[in-house]
Design a protein that fits this description.
Elements (H helix, E strand, L loop, with lengths): L7 E6 L4 E6 L2 H6 L3 H12 L19
Antiparallel strand pairs: 1-2
Amino acid sequence: MRYGYSGKILRVDLTNRKAWAEALDEETYRLYPGGKALAAYILLREMRLGADPLGPDNVLILANG
């Protein structure tokens, strides 16, 4: 990986008070270059339709881009 990517993203589950690093394959980074594209990919993949904006099913993503 080059240009600021470490190949991992940090996951934080506030409900269960757990944190872990998750590795993404290089193909994902190639398909979604930059922080905004990667954040949109994660958001669309993980947030269910109609989730309560202030509920535990909502997703918060902090990414640079």
